[in-house]
Design a protein that fits this description.
This protein is mainly beta. It is globular and about 85 Å long.
Length: 813
Amino acid sequence: MMQQLTTRLFAWGLVMMFSLSQFPLFAQEDLVTVTGQVVDSETNSPLIGATLVTKGGLVGQLTDEEGKFSIQLDRSSFPLELVVTYIGYEANNFQVDLSSYRDIRIPLSAEGVSIDDVVITASKGFEQSQADLTASIQVVKPRAIDLQALPSVDDAISLIPGVDNQDGQINIRGSSGYAYGVGSRVMVTLDGLPLITGDAASASLDLVPVDNIAQIEVLKGASSVLYGSAALGGVINVITSDAQATPRTVLRVRGGIFDQPANPALDWDGDDNARSGSIHLFHSRQLFKGSKLGPVDFTLQANAIKETGYRQGTDTEEYRGVAMLKWRPIKGLTLGVNTSISIDSSGQILYWDGYFPDTLIENGQTIVSGGALTPTQDDGGFRRQLQVQTAIDPVVKYVNDKGQMFWYRGRYLTTNNQNNTNQSTRSSIFYNDFLYQMPVAKKLNWISGVTYTASTINGDSLYGGEYVFNGDTISSNGDHTGNSLGIYTQLDGKFGKLNTNLGIRYESVQIDNSAREALPVFRAGLNYEIAKGTNVRASVGQAFRVPSIAERFANTSGGGVIVEPNPSIGSERGYSAEVGFRQGFATKGPKSSIKGYLDIAAFRMQYEDMVEFGVSPSNTFDPLSGNFDVGFSSINVADARITGAELTGLFAGQFGDAFVNLSGGIMYIDPQNLNPAPPDSQVDLSQGDGDVLNLFNGNKVDRPSFLKYRQNWTIRASLSVGYGPVSLTGNYRYKSFTETIDQYLLVVIPDLREFRTFYPEGTTVLDLILNWDVNPTHQISFIVNNALNEEYTVIPGFLAPQRKFTIQYRLQL
């Protein structure tokens, strides 16, 4: 029933879009051409790609390579108000009348902390004020990222309210648990292009240029209409900065040392504490300015990162590089290509060798194992991998004087993973997005597009072997292919104080030669400004996720666990709904200012056929010897519902040379399996191994009512206080106890049951940052991560880093 309704809505939407596209864009009589330039208020440098919007919501134009614009409007529109926005700058509401509409100069000031950030992720094509959005979105500014002195962006994501990062697997509002590194339910993008690998559908965060981030935008809730599969829980979009007229060079050098663990008996390396260090070089500039060929933006970043590893056998050596080119040969046209590479040689971990240290006698010598800091070894010793990832991103963008935009973006991402377990993989994915944007009837912005993705995977024995599909036994050499075609359209309207959006997508997916799966999804939302700074919103959206190649065909073993293929696994489908209230506030005196907001949202997400790893029928257990091999595969196990509420806020106060900034959020969720096992059929190994045989022979199942790898409460808070060039920042993270995990792990991972008993109250982590801006060129930071030296796990059997001291020097020219 729901699918039929959605299909009808999709067809109605296409008819409506076609009809609206026939409307005249502008009156053709008595036109007036408004011209001018948008510049940086301090440096007077032109701002390329700034957005000008007439009050009322009609997109006028983006500025060209000289920051200039030219907009044709009907004479009856005057006097008018232009809203000028640019990411990283405060918006400027500029008044224009018929006495002064030529060669006007509009200055924008770089923002410190802004109440209403400018974002583009919610619409995919044009800028909007954060307060006007129909769904929750969180924004992280580059200053907050710079303070962390991070080698990569993944730890910065963990500081965002409502977001969790479990060993590289991103989770928004409990949408995901932990899926062992495969099948992300959150779409991670770089400048709107997915960073999802072709085989495991995991996020390639190492390809993000951490020193060239304009901002990070986190869109919470189902976002498949614009972003397709993997956007079931939301989108994290990392937006890079364009090169400016003034060249910019940044050099970062950082070094760190790990303290002893909280339990000294776990200190496997004795006095030789683990260390880390990195060098980051960034440069951007405009080439050929003023030439007939048009300017070329050039950006280069290179990183070298090394860590000896706080866990035994997990040393890391990484090299990353990014080169970005943008050429504007004529007004309105941008041609570009970005290339990036990441080379990562590192030790890997399945889980610890045991939480408790162990004393061994070998060759007459006493050897103390590091316990939780010593990983389980395979037959060949510690696991090692060499992973090389490359990406090529072509871009063609054209914007005409009427605000119509034609935009092609592509990404060819390859991943080559070589390891010492004889299960290396190679994958490639070619993503293509063709987007068209136009203003309609002076109140609407219409975005439509087509997305095509093709992937090829060779996994040798990892994705090969025999499996059963539709009753037939199939033998595979590990080669697989996939492709998808998506058509989407969305209307965003602004009618005075009311903002609306309506979107529809139709997607068709095929894996190998199996039957093609097709499905429509729909979303809609409203936002109303009750008073200045006070907004209410409501939205609902459908979403889907197609299981990855790794979830379908993984065929491997390790640590007593056998992973079996399940090519018949079905797609996840669901929806999310939200209502929210946002109150902004601001005051300004002669030497002081206060800005901020409070935002509260209530949400509900519901999924059908949720995918989890679970015990499969193929397993062996010998009760006499106690030996067992666990059969494990991806299966559709549950219909799920997650309800919750989230309070986020920001306070930014400037008092002369002193300042106070406080931001963060509190989230509560109730993650429920809607078809749990009855109590007498639910396996329980939390108190002992009495139910092991029942689990492995299928008499009992691991299907609790509380969804696995979720917590009821999460808190994120960041407080910065400073005077002049010196600041002290504290970042606080709290997660309540993880109620349920895979029960078989309590048997497979030594001492896991005892560890969970020792720490039943959740995790509290505090980071401290002391920063000194010596002058505009030089900056020194001292960071203490996990300042309380808390002992906790990231995922079961995976102890998080102990306290770490880092010092960073940053040079900017």
